[in-house]
Amino acid sequence: MRNLISKMNIAYLDANFLIDWLIRKNPNLKKRARILLAKLLAQFDVLAISPLAVDESWRVIQKEIFPSKSYADGMLSSEVEIFTEHILNYSKIKVVQFQNPENGIKDALYRLKTFSLQPRDSFHLAIMRDNNITVMVSRDDGLVKRQSLLGISIFS
What we know:
Layout: H1 2-6, E1 10-13, H2 15-22, H3 27-43, E2 46-49, H4 51-65, H5 78-89, E3 93-95, H6 101-115, H7 119-130, E4 135-137, H8 141-145, H9 147-150, E5 153-155
Parallel strand pairs: 1-2, 1-4, 2-3, 4-5
Helix pairs in contact: 2-3, 2-4, 4-5, 6-7
């Protein structure tokens, strides 16, 4: 899969895009995400997600469905299952992980220290780098402002 993916035009989907597209009740954010999705589908061969982005999305679903409960309470809503089935069955979405987990963790640590990122953002960028992905879909202002420093392009 790595050789196939490295030759494709790929965009990495951050959790905030997945949430806006599939979960948010705000019609403006949902519409904006769907318009952006149409552009992405026309421009990219593959839309990549990572287990980290899925976990972040699950946490948002749980907070919206059970705001007073901890994620650790194990409350599984049908929305989590529907969301998961939707992204896993979407033909252009591929799940990516570290090809070399040890090097990936070292790269995430390097990015954490060098760029003063949130740990999850360091991991997103390390996963992207490990899979030769240079485009991210996100509306994370911190990443958008530093995209050239980070060596990526961001669609938002």
